[in-house]
Write a structure and sequence with these properties.
Order of helices and strands: EHEHHH
Helix content: 40-55%
Structural class: mainly alpha
Strand content: 5-15%
Radius of gyration: 17 Å
Number of helices: 4
Shape: globular
Strand order of the largest sheet: 1-2
Distance between the termini: 47 Å
Mean pLDDT: 90
Low-confidence stretches: none
Number of strands: 2
């Protein structure tokens, strides 16, 4: 399967409605320490995917990369419908990229932005 040139800082999202294609993608994805690999869909499907990868005897580093994926993707925001789900997914990707645990701004004491003075 041909791959685009993904960089470790890229967010990779997977949803094709084709289990075999998704499994093939995960099994062949170069191991590069991606910050975010996510799969849309039920957790049950993700567990089935990991079981299938294990049964296919993929290399351990490939399996561990797949097992570290965010699945199902998104933060628990009560999202309903495509636009809200997309927002929940984008919020999760940003939180992962910034290495931040999501929280309400009202619960933060002091400045909410980190300023860099030069």
């Amino acid at each position: 399967m041909p791959y685009a040139r993904f960089r470790p800082e890229d967010a990779l999202l997977l949803m094709s409605h084709n289990f075999t294609l998704e499994k093939k993608f995960l099994a062949g994805l170069p191991v590069q320490g991606y910050r975010y690999i996510g799969m849309l869909g039920p957790k049950k499907k993700f567990v089935k995917m990991l079981d299938a990868l294990r049964a296919d005897e993929v290399p351990e580093d490939v399996y561990q990369q797949a097992a570290a994926a965010y699945a199902p993707i998104g933060l628990q925001l009560g999202a309903e419908g495509p636009a809200e789900i997309a927002l929940a997914v984008c919020a999760e990707i940003l939180a992962v990229r910034k290495q931040m645990a999501p929280k309400h701004l009202k619960d933060i004491e002091g400045p909410i932005h980190k300023h860099v003075l030069g």
